[in-house]
Amino acid sequence: MTAAAGPVCILAGAGTGKTRAITHRIAYRTLRGDIAGRHLLAVTFTARAAAEMRARLAALGVGGVQARTFHAAALRQVRYFAPRLLAGRELPELVPSKARLVGLAAARVGVRTDRTGARDLASEIEWAKSSLVEPGEYVVAAAKATREPPFESGKVAEVFAAYEQLKRGNGVIDFEDLLRAAVWGIEEHSDVAEQVRAQYRHFVVDEYQDVNPLQQRLLDAWLGGRDDLTVVGDASQTIYSFTGATSAYLIDFPRKRRDAVVVRLVRDYRSTPQVVGLANAVIRQARGSEARLRLELVGQRPSGAEPELRIFQDEPGEAAAVAARCRALVAAGTPAREIAVLFRTNAQSETYEKALAEAEVPYVVQGAERFFERTEIRQALVALRAATRSADPGEPLVRSVAAALEAVGWAPSPRPPGGAARERWEALAALVQVAEEFAATPVLLPIGEGAVSSRPPSLADFVDELARRAAAQHAPTVDGVTLASLHSAKGLEWDAVFVVGLSDGTLPTTYAKTPEQVEEERRLLYVGVTRAREWLWLSYAISRSPGGRPRRPCRFLPQFDGRPGGAGGSGAGSGMARLSRKTDSRPPRIVSCRVCGATLLGGADRKLGRCATCPSDLDEELLERLQAWRARVSAGQRVPAYVVFTDATLVAIAERKPAQRSDLIAIAGIGPRKLGLYGDAALALVAGAAVDDLEPEKTSANDP
Question: Does residue 14 have a known ligand-binding role?
């Protein structure tokens, strides 16, 4: 990335190496002497991503760059300027969760709610504050944004106002207040603005499609009208609009900054061409503003296994099959930590937890108990700190860590059987893995005038690194199959990925009612597919429970063949279907219902271009003329009527009313041969011609 200073927009598709691109851009500019690392602020959305960026920059020999989340950067600045901004008062305590105060606020205004309702209200208040909406503006803003609040919008506004009062009364602030305080400090205090802008002169923002209005306002305050800004994002991975995030800033970036350099990264280095082809097929049907920046990925890895679509009679059978395949993958040598089971809602997790436990497959639930809060990890950190006092400087770091962990009962082998003992062992083993990775990165030491030297990391360095990770909740990967929602899986990747529960009503969720909401659900599936490096399984159950009401498959899935298998099938030959793919470079053609958008699976539905249950716009008079014409042609050629056109094809013509040959051949069942034989006659009938008006040769063509 050698673009000069100024606005740069990197449109980076999934797996295209965006982190490498932006860290190399930073390194290029820094090591050339164009900028000083201490004057650059790189902002991302997760502590893990920020830590990864810092590690890569260190490996490139770049020091001094601040890589932080929006909240971490704001907290650092507000704390620094607090004595000046607060007239000597201490910075109010930051509450880690809104739910408790929101519950109290709801009770104060007479809204009865349980723990789940309090969390939903907290999420709604978070959306409002991130969108720069005040309590008195909430009702109108929520209606305009087509929000579906957990309570009547007027009641939500009352809870919102009471929550703000409770916060002030208790002398605490939340994360949105923190960002607002940083904005206020810069916008209202010229001396603070001058100092901040003197410190940070160059900016990089990762995952720019996820920025919300409050974060954008903070970014604008940091910039102060300057334009040395590099943004990186992928509109096709916009999946957090329910929190207030919007891809509008990414989409409008080149328009608002006419001199911006736009770079498109489309070479996918993560996934096999087969996975990439399926991802392209899913997102190719996207509509809306985000689709304008849609990228067609080009796979760079060697060919791999075809993605598979598996169909089951019910959810327990689906979960049992997934668990059995996970066990087989682990037995064949795939590390459990390189396998993930992804689903639309957290409520789906329990079924898979039970199935994996019964199959004796270790698993980790993404977003469950925080790693650094586990009892054995807290004990391990105490033991490691104690070991630094007597550590041998010449002993390899990994050996020192392993020796220290012996004090809390850990040993490299044997690994205990499943259960609590296994989970404890896996958690401690994850610390050793972190030590192995950390030992490979030398510690950089400045020696003056921009030069640096290096030395191997010590046990004390490692303990400091763990403290930083704990503060940022940057947890290591534990050796178990990951169970995660599609939202929480964003930014992660695994060798083998199961995307499960792909039935209409779950994905897309029944709550997705507007076209924009449905498109976001499509992007969720795209994110799930692009998490897989080598092996991908997509599945759905015909019914939720044995004998339950049938459901349709996810409308975003490409066309597939095969029939549903019996309940509980788990092997490759148990009646489950493989995803249809003609070649690696030609993804399956998706035929969607023109009424509801569902993927059409049956041949008759595909010819009609709509679900059989969706309302028809059939021109019955035209259909009668088409049927009379077909009868005349079939009699003249002495062939059955369906050889000319099937009933479904005639109905499709009478519904779609094609105006030209390209419209006609778009109807399933009409190929080049039939277009040549009958196309002119069909188009004439659509245009209003009577059967008797057609020339005989147009109704009695012979086979070539």
Answer: yes
C-alpha 19: how far from chain center: 16
Q: What is the CA radius of gyration of the chain?
A: 30
Nearest to 27 by CA among 69, 75, 60: 60
pTM over 0.90: no
> Do 135 and 186 have their domain in common?
no
Tell how far CA 7 is from the center of its chain.
26
**12 has binding-site annotation:** yes
156: exposed, middle or buried (Cβ count in 10 Å: 0-12, 13-18, 19+): buried
Tokens of 329: 């993958």
Q: At which residue do the structure tokens 């944004």 appear?
A: 145
In the chain, the number of structural domains is 4
Helix axes 175-188 and 190-199, enclosed angle (nearest 10): 100
Give the CATH number of the domain where residue 648 resides: 1.10.150.80
Written as six digits, the tokens of 555 are 């409308």
Is residue 236, in this structure, part of any structural domain at all? Answer: yes
Tokens of 72: 């971490």
15 is in an annotated binding site: yes
d(CA 39, CA 203): 9
| 19 marked as part of a ligand binding site | yes
For residue 273, the one-letter residue type is P
| Rounded CA separation 477/284 (Å) | 33
Structure tokens that stand for 661 in this block: 């040959």
pLDDT digits (tens, 9 = 90+) for 409-454: 888 877 665 555 666 777 788 888 888 888 887 776 666 655 666 7
What one-character DSSP code corresponds to residue 554?
A: P
| Residue 208 exposure: Cα atoms within 13 Å on the Cβ side | 28
Q: Is 17 annotated as a binding residue?
A: yes
